[in-house]
Automatic annotation (TrEMBL):
The chain crosses the membrane at residues 6-25, 32-50, 70-94, 106-128, 140-160, 181-202, 231-249, 261-281, 301-319, 331-348, 354-373, 418-439. Pfam families: GntP_permease. It comes from the Bacteria. GO terms for cellular component: plasma membrane. Keywords: Membrane, Transmembrane, Transmembrane helix. This is GntP family permease. One of its GO terms (molecular function) is gluconate transmembrane transporter activity. It comes from Chitinophaga oryzae. The keyword Transit peptide does not apply.
Length: 444
C-alpha cells in the first residue's frame, strides 16, 4: 500500500471514474457492476494482488451495507406506505389550499419539498403527476412551469436530506452526524427549491402555455387520512433525529429522558416510529396491501443497496492507494476546502446522470482527503457531505432517469426540459453550495 506512487494513485482514480461514466452513461450498465469493475480496474493499476483486491472489495461492500442497509430499507418502506395510504395526496391538497390556485406553481414547489422528504423524487413525481396536470388545466399555466416547479421541490430534498440514499450513504462514509446533516440539509434545500421554482417561472413564461386535460386520481376523500395523520410520519422521525443530535451530542453521561431520546432518535428507530404512525393512517380496506408494501419496499431498497455496496467497494480500493497522504502537502488542492467535494460530485453527476451514484462515488474519493482539506472535524465532515449534496444537483439532463420521468409523465419536449428544468438544477446546485459556504463561515 505504501509503495503505490502518486502517478499510480491518480491514474487509478481517474481510470475508475472514467470507467463508471462510460459504463453507466454510454453503455447503460447497471451502476453496481460499473462500480465493481471500476474497483477492479483501480486495484490492478495500483498493482495489488488479485486476492487483496477481492478481499478489499468484499470488506468495503459489507461495511457500508452493514452501516446503512437497515436505514435504507426502512426509509424506502415508509415512503411506500405514505404513497399507498394517500398521505402524499392529502399533504398536497392542504398546501394548495393555503397558497391558492393562482399560485399553483409555487404550491407545487412547496408540495414537492414537503412530500419529497420521505419519498424518492421520481416516485414523488409519479404520484403527484395527476395533481400536477389537474392544476395546470385549472390555472392555465404552462405545463413546463408546473412540472419543473414540482420537480425541483422534490429534487432539492432528495439531494440534500437523509434518509434519501445518496446523501445517507455519503453521511455514513464520511462519518458525519446524521441528525445535523438532516437538519442543515433540510434548511439548505429550502432556498435551493425556491430558486429552482423561480427559474422555472422565469424561463417557462417564454414558452407556449400548453395545459393538458384534467386527470382523475385513484383515491377518494373517504379513504384518505387526515392532515395530522399524514404529516406525523414525516415530522416525528425528523424531529426525533434532530433532537437526539442536539441534546446528546458530546455528552458522556445522560439522564433517563435523554437516554430515551438517544434511543428514539437513532435514525433506524425514528423511521420505524414513522412507519408505525403511517400504519395508523391506513384504513381497514387498505390492510390487504400491507404485505405487498413490505415486499415492494424490500425489493426497491435492494436495488439501492447494491449500488451503495458497490460504492463502498470502490471506495475501499481507493483507500488502498493512500491518495490523501500523497496530496496532503499540495496547497493547490488542500486550499480548495469544501469546494473540492462539490466539484467532484458535480462532475460525476453531470457525466453519468445518477445523483445517488455521483455522491456515493464522490464520498469514496473525498473520504481519505478530509484531513488534507481541513474537513476531518465533526463540523467539517458535515459541511463536506452538504457540499457533495449540492454537487449532486448539478446537472440533471438526458442521462438522468428523473429527467425522463418528468418528461414522460408531463408530456414535455426534451428541448423545453433542457431550457427550463435542466438550467433550474444548475441554479439550485450553485445556490445550495453558496448556502453551504455561508454555513461554513458560521460553524467553522
Amino acid at each position: 500500500m505504501n509503495n503505490i506512487s502518486l502517478l499510480q494513485s491518480i491514474s487509478g482514480l481517474l481510470a475508475g471514474i472514467a470507467l463508471i461514466v462510460i459504463l453507466t452513461a454510454r453503455f447503460r450498465i447497471h451502476a453496481f457492476f460499473a462500480l465493481l469493475l471500476a474497483g477492479l480496474l483501480a486495484g490492478l493499476i495500483f498493482q495489488l494482488p488479485l486476492t487483496d483486491i477481492l478481499t478489499t472489495i468484499k470488506t468495503g461492500f459489507g461495511q457500508i451495507i452493514g452501516s446503512l442497509g437497515l436505514l435504507i430499507i426502512l426509509g424506502t418502506t415508509l415512503g411506500l406506505i405514505l404513497e399507498h395510504t394517500g398521505s402524499t395526496t392529502v399533504l398536497a391538497a392542504y398546501v394548495l389550499r393555503q397558497t391558492g390556485t393562482g399560485r399553483s406553481p409555487l404550491a407545487l414547489n412547496i408540495i414537492g419539498y414537503v412530500v419529497g422528504m420521505p419519498i424518492f423524487c421520481d416516485s414523488g413525481f409519479i404520484v403527484l403527476s395527476g395533481l400536477n396536470k389537474a392544476l395546470a388545466w385549472r390555472s392555465g399555466v404552462s405545463m413546463v412551469i408546473m412540472a419543473s416547479s414540482l420537480a425541483t421541490g422534490l429534487y432539492a430534498v432528495h439531494c440534500m436530506m437523509p434518509p434519501h440514499p445518496g446523501i445517507t450513504a455519503a453521511t455514513g462514509v464520511i462519518q458525519a452526524d446524521m441528525g445535523r446533516v438532516m437538519l442543515y440539509g433540510l434548511l439548505i434545500a429550502l432556498p435551493a427549491s425556491f430558486c429552482g421554482y423561480a427559474w422555472s417561472l422565469y424561463a417557462g413564461r417564454r414558452l407556449p402555455a400548453v395545459a393538458p386535460a384534467a386527470m382523475e386520481t385513484d383515491t377518494t376523500p373517504d379513504t384518505l387520512p387526515s392532515v395530522r395523520m399524514s404529516v406525523l410520519p414525516i415530522a416525528v422521525p425528523i424531529l426525533l433525529i434532530a433532537l437526539r443530535s442536539f441534546f446528546t451530542l458530546g455528552q458522556t453521561t445522560l439522564s433517563l429522558p435523554l437516554q430515551l431520546l438517544n434511543l428514539a432518535g437513532t435514525p433506524e428507530i425514528a423511521i420505524t416510529i414513522g412507519i408505525a404512525l403511517a400504519l395508523l393512517g391506513m384504513r381497514k380496506s387498505q390492510g390487504d396491501g400491507f404485505r405487498k408494501i413490505l415486499q415492494e419496499g424490500a425489493e426497491k431498497a435492494a436495488g439501492i443497496l447494491v449500488i451503495i455496496g458497490g460504492g463502498g467497494a470502490f471506495g475501499a480500493i481507493l483507500a488502498k492507494a493512500g491518495i490523501g497522504a500523497h496530496i496532503a502537502g499540495n496547497p493547490a488542492i488542500t486550499g480548495t476546502g469544501i469546494l473540492l467535494p462539490f466539484i467532484v460530485t458535480a462532475i460525476l453527476k453531470t457525466a453519468q446522470g445518477s445523483s445517488t451514484v455521483a455522491i456515493i462515488t464522490a464520498a469514496s474519493i473525498i473520504h481519505p482527503l478530509l484531513p488534507a482539506l481541513g474537513l476531518h472535524t465533526p463540523d467539517g465532515s458535515i459541511l463536506c457531505v452538504l457540499a457533495m449534496g449540492a454537487g449532486s444537483m448539478m446537472v440533471s439532463h438526458t442521462n438522468d432517469a428523473y429527467f425522463w420521468v418528468i418528461s414522460r409523465f408531463s408530456g414535455l419536449e426534451v428541448k423545453d426540459m433542457l431550457r427550463v428544468y435542466t438550467i433550474a438544477t444548475l441554479v439550485m446546485g450553485i445556490v445550495a453550495m453558496l448556502c453551504v459556504y455561508l454555513l461554513s463561515r458560521l460553524i467553522l
